[in-house]
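Whiteboard transcription, Tuesday session. T.W. wrote the C-alpha cells on the left side:
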C-alpha cells in the first residue's frame, strides 16, 4: 500500500499531489486510493514501457515491477522518456535507471526492478504480484508468453505495439473479452514484420500508444466491468484512429482450449551464428548449471566425449559440439542454424 497522501489527509486536497485527479470524475478520491493499492508490471522498459511507467507513477500507482534485460544506449534517448545522457554514458540497466527516475518523480512509488528477459521459466513468478500487466515489448514471442500467463492466471494485460508512425492497442481481460490469440492464433513470422530498427519510430507515436494503454490500464484497475473489447489502430502522423470491435473465439487455442503453448513449451534454444568461428551457438531459454560428467557418460555412447576444464567436447563423424557448463552449446563446423539444431537434437534431445 502507498502511504496516504499527506496533504489530502491534512484537509488541503486542492494542494495535494493528486488534487487534479481527485476532481476528475473518472478517478476521484476513492479511485485514487484504489490506484495507490495497485501493482502494475511493465514488461519491457524501452519506448512504450518508459512512457507507461512515467504516466502510471505520476497517476499514483502504488507499485511498479519494471522488467528489461537491456542497458540504456544513446540511440534510445529520442523516444525513451525516462532516460538521459548519463544513463547511456554509464550504460545503466534500464530497470535500475527507470526506478531511479521514478523515485525522483515520486518517492512514494515502490519499484521492483527486474533485470532479466521474461521467459517461460520465470514469467509466472515475476508477474504473480501484478494486478495488471503492461506490454512494453517489441516482439511477439514475449507477447504470446505474456498472453499465456495472463489467461492462465486471469490477469488483465494491455497489448501495445508501435513501428514507424503506426500503433496498435488492445486491452485483454481474460474471461470477459478476446485474448491475443483469439485475434492472431499463430505467432507471426518475425522475418516478415517491420521493426523499429529497420523502419524507425516516431516518438509521438510511442506517446499516443502508451497514453492509450495507460488510459485502459487505469480504467480496468478502477472498474474492469467498464471494459469494451476493441482493437485500436492508430496512424499518428495523419492523426487517424480506428477502433474495431473484437470478440472471443471459442476455438482459440489459449482462452478457448486452455493450451498454454508458450508458457508450457520446453525451453527453446536461441541460435547465434558465430561467423568468424564457423560455429553456431545455441543458448537455452533458461541457462543454468549442467552436470557435464553425467552428460559425458550419456554422449560417450554416441562418440568421443571428453571434459576439458569447464567444457565438454564431443565428436562423432562430422558432428562436433562443445557444451559449456551453463548449458550453452557450440555446434562447430557450420553457420547453418537448422543444421546446428539438427546436430543438437541428434544427440541431446533423443
Ligand atoms: Zn483467446
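and on the right, the sequence the group agreed on:
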Amino acid at each position: 500500500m502507498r502511504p496516504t497522501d499527506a496533504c489530502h489527509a491534512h484537509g488541503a486536497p486542492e494542494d495535494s499531489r493528486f488534487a487534479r485527479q481527485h476532481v476528475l470524475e473518472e478517478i476521484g478520491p476513492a479511485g485514487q486510493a484504489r490506484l495507490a493499492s495497485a501493482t502494475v508490471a511493465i514488461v519491457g522498459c524501452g519506448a512504450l514501457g518508459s512512457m507507461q511507467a512515467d504516466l502510471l507513477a505520476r497517476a499514483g500507482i502504488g507499485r511498479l515491477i519494471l522488467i528489461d534485460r537491456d542497458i540504456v544506449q544513446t540511440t534510445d534517448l529520442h523516444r525513451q522518456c525516462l532516460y538521459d545522457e548519463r544513463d547511456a554514458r554509464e550504460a545503466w540497466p534500464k530497470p535500475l535507471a527507470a526506478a531511479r527516475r521514478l523515485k525522483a518523480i515520486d518517492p512514494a512509488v515502490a519499484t521492483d526492478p527486474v533485470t532479466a528477459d521474461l521467459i517461460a521459466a520465470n514469467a509466472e513468478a515475476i508477474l504473480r504480484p501484478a494486478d495488471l500487466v503492461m506490454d512494453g515489448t517489441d516482439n511477439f514471442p514475449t507477447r504470446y508468453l505474456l498472453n499465456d500467463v495472463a489467461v492462465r492466471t486471469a490477469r488483465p494485460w494491455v497489448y501495445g505495439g508501435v513501428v514507424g508512425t503506426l500503433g496498435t492497442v488492445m486491452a485483454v481481460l481474460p474471461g470477459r473479452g478476446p485474448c491475443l490469440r483469439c485475434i492472431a492464433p499463430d505467432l507471426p513470422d518475425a522475418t516478415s514484420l517491420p521493426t523499429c530498427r529497420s523502419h524507425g519510430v516516431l516518438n509521438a507515436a510511442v506517446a499516443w500508444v502508451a497514453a492509450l494503454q495507460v488510459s485502459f490500464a487505469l480504467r480496468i484497475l478502477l472498474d474492469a466491468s467498464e471494459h469494451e473489447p476493441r482493437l485500436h489502430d492508430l496512424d499518428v502522423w495523419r492523426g487517424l484512429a480506428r477502433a474495431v470491435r473484437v470478440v472471443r473465439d471459442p476455438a482459440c487455442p489459449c482462452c478457448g482450449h486452455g493450451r498454454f503453448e508458450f508458457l508450457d513449451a520446453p525451453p527453446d534454444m536461441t541460435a547465434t551464428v558465430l561467423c568468424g568461428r564457423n560455429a553456431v551457438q545455441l543458448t537455452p531459454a533458461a541457462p543454468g548449471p549442467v552436470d557435464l560428467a553425467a552428460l559425458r557418460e550419456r554422449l560417450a555412447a554416441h562418440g568421443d566425449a571428453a571434459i576439458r576444464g569447464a567444457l565438454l567436447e564431443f565428436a562423432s563423424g562430422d558432428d562436433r559440439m562443445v557444451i559449456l557448463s551453463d548449458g550453452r552449446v557450440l555446434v562447430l563446423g557450420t553457420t547453418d542454424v537448422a543444421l546446428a539444431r539438427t546436430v543438437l537434437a541428434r544427440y541431446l534431445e533423443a
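Someone added at the bottom: Confidence is low (pLDDT under 50) at residues 4-12.
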